[in-house]
Design a protein that fits this description.
Mean pLDDT of chain A: 87
Structural class of chain A: alpha/beta
Largest sheet of chain A: 6 strands, parallel
Radius of gyration of chain A: 26 Å
CATH superfamily of the largest domain in chain A: Response regulator
Order of helices and strands of chain A: HHHHEHHEHEHEEHEHEHEHEEHEE
Number of helices of chain A: 13
Largest interface: A-B, 55 and 56 residues
CATH topology of the largest domain in chain A: Rossmann fold
Strand order of the largest sheet of chain A: 2-1-3-4-5-11
Shape of chain A: elongated
Oligomer: homodimer
Low-confidence stretches of chain A: 1-12
Strand content of chain A: 15-25%
DNA sequence: CTGAAAGCGCTTACAG
DNA sequence: CTGAAAGCGCTTACAG
């Protein structure tokens, strides 16, 4: 029928364009564009006519044409660089994703998900993002040694990271929890409960969260006049398995320890399992405090006392900040407060 | 400097276009386009010259311009309609997302994530997808009563669903696990172990998986000459909490039951918790079998015997099928096989 | 094998 | 307040 139907089996009738709407409304298509974009200098009658024509024709704008004309893509990349096994088990990820999806949807922006774990994916990702095909990038779980970071900065893509990016504080905006004070409050809670041999399982030391939560542990101990025992500090990678491994190391070093502060709920869960195997009662023999207040925290055995990391707020702030950065405002960091949530693994 | 820099603070120099490449290579830009798209009838020299020019200029194609010209967006929507609390706790979701991201990336397609839970999100989603802004839609956790389904079908958007969509079997292509045989094999395993009072916790009965796994339970029992006791069937919604609630109901109806087949690992986990509270040993007093072999299964207490649902395969097949549907091939369904994974909650 | 040209559907100064 | 026109960066028949 029509001369220029799409090459493959035509997906129904041609979609209406701005010209169809203009014809319906009896105005020029420039005017249609103006009301579409809510610009000034359009008469009320024209606005009404166009709106009617739009609903009659079922018109929706072609985002590609719009992007081509404006030079903005209307989309944001949600970039994950964690190795996949962490992604799989981390309930924080879902919360963040949900929050970002919501915030983006509210602003009529599209969420493009990119996972860069294999070398091929990383190469494709960097060329895609450097190509200017998205308006900005939301970066999750960045590790300071990652070469992707430098490439992204060099490509001048607007970026906002989740958590401080070590070594890039001045170049990459970020939204972080108050990790240091959060860690501190967790350990102060343990001290107040009378614990005297407090160990910690840290996050990766090439991440802001990993470093800052450990610093909070230091702060609390020092403020209380204690010294830091190296044997009471074991490192993890946020995962359950690493938490379990770290707990074993800690028990070897000090079988008498009476408390553990784990820098994530997932690691705390691993620690809980090892303590059970080692026949230590929680909280009777050993108190355990986690970090995040993720979905996990309330369902462990016993339920975890933890530091609440308000990821819904973080997601919202990340999107807000990114739109600022895209608009040209200078990079900055936002810190959201944390709070202690007391459950049975370390009651008040 | 340049007359037409983008409105906000110029993001560095202008990106090279196809004309810049053509100039560099000393050919027309039509020729550049040909080598870009790997079309025939280009001399080897021209190809070489263009490739060199591309790497010298750092050119990457503008996807919006390309989409506008070709009428294809190069992107696929990953659409989630589950209420958010399910999304949060379901480890299957991450596996699927990862698999789809990989398969799409291999085909140079972009993954657009859409979450449609609130009414506003649903409205935006339907208008976005109906607007023809993506080449196709990957649908997750569809419930048969959802009005979104009809709207999507009416909009003639290519769709592939994860799991059979009840009532839309002829209209929506899908990739499903062999749910019925999977459920059957789980229950046969229980029968073979000598269980005689086998209960089941089902998934939602408005989903293909929910119905088919229950049918598998029926099949096994009937084949063994047993009758179906209504009191031994309790319904859940895939979540842990619903599994726990269902388990309580089942114990009330038959305190002597000696086995439970839960239609998801998450529900099995909830059941496990209730059995522990009720002082039933697993597998001593009650055997438990789950479904999915999700990340959860190996970490429960005790680890779960379960039916493996190969979600990585499912993700890959969904993308493959969707590209077929987009290319105009007739809709069809793909079933991937399942297999029993034996662990301690019901040993061999 | 290769150019010149039209067209994809918008936005945006530029004149009126 | 509104139209006519140029331009965004590509692809694709159409002539050569």
């Amino acid at each position: 029928m029509l001369p220029n139907v799409p090459t493959p089996p035509s997906p129904g009738r041609k979609r209406p364009t701005i010209r169809d709407v203009a014809r319906e409304a009896g105005v020029s298509y420039a005017t249609v564009s103006r009301v579409l974009n809510g610009r000034e200098w359009v008469s009320p009658e024209a606005v009404r006519a166009v709106r009617d024509a739009i609903s009659r024709t079922g018109y929706t704008a072609n985002p590609h044409a719009r992007s081509l004309a404006t030079g903005r893509s209307g989309s944001i990349a949600f970039l994950l660089t964690e190795p996949q096994h962490l992604l799989f088990e981390d309930p924080n990820f879902s919360v963040l994703l949900r929050g970002v999806a919501q915030a983006l949807s509210d602003r009529e922006l599209t969420l493009i998900l990119m996972i860069a774990s294999t070398p091929e994916e990383r190469a494709r990702t960097i060329s895609y993002l450097s190509g200017g095909h998205v308006d900005g990038v939301l970066l999750f779980s960045p590790h300071s040694g990652d070469p992707l970071l430098g490439q992204l900065v060099q490509a001048e893509v607007p970026i906002v990271a989740c958590g401080r990016v070590l070594g890039y504080e001045q170049l990459i905006s970020s939204v972080m929890a108050d990790d240091r004070n959060g860690g501190r409050s967790a350990v102060e809670h343990l001290i107040a409960a009378g614990c005297t041999r407090i160990a910690t399982i840290t996050g990766p030391q090439d991440t802001g969260g990993g470093v800052d939560r450990l610093q909070g542990y230091h702060d609390a101990l020092i403020a209380h006049g204690d010294t830091i025992e190296p044997g009471r500090v074991a490192h993890g990678d946020w995962s359950r398995a690493s938490g379990a491994a770290a707990m074993r190391t800690l028990l070897e070093h000090d079988p008498e320890l009476d408390a553990v502060f784990a820098a994530s709920d997932a690691m705390a869960e691993g620690a809980l399992r090892v303590l059970r195997e080692a026949a230590r009662a929680v909280p009777g023999d050993v108190r355990v405090v986690g970090f995040d207040d993720s979905g996990l925290a309330a369902t462990t055995e016993p339920p975890l006392t933890t530091v609440r990391h308000p990821l819904d707020r973080v997601a919202e702030e990340m999107v807000r900040l990114l739109t600022d950065v895209i608009a040209g405002r200078t990079p900055l960091s936002i810190t959201v407060p944390t709070s202690l949530v007391v459950r049975e693994s370390s009651p008040a």
